[in-house]
Write a structure and sequence with these properties.
This protein is about 30% helix and about 35% strand. It has five helices and eight strands. It has a six-stranded mixed β-sheet with strand order 1-2-3-6-8-7. The protein has a two-stranded antiparallel sheet with strand order 4-5. The protein is an alpha/beta fold and about 140 residues long. It starts with a helix and ends with a strand.
Amino acid sequence: VLLEGTERHAGLVNQFAGDGALIVVGAPVPDDDYATHALRAARELTAELDRRAPDTPATIGVSGGEVIAGNMGSSKRFEYTVMGDPVNEAARLGAQAKPLPGRVAVAGRLFEQAAEDERAHWEIVHSVVLRGRNERTDVAALKSF
């Protein structure tokens, strides 16, 4: 039930890890407007989590870009997943999300790619050098929650 918003926007929650979620939009089915759909899905998921589980400290990190996507593993453990720099960035953004409205953080470049009507719900709140990186990443958060 918590994931209906994600599915409504052509995405899926690939995994929950600790107190974070990895949302995948644009794979396995390509989506030309994945940035808009990813932001909408994250916004709806965080609102639904707040309604249904307000004491759960879940965070959401949202990034985008080119990844390797598919069924991976061995005969002992096989699953659909995504790998690549955007996945790592999303995990780092999840850690940045804890103090932000709705506990969701979005990569600034993904925010910039989203449709204007969705960007209206978000704003760049700061820029940070994420762990394992040399360059700053702009971080977008919900304007209000």
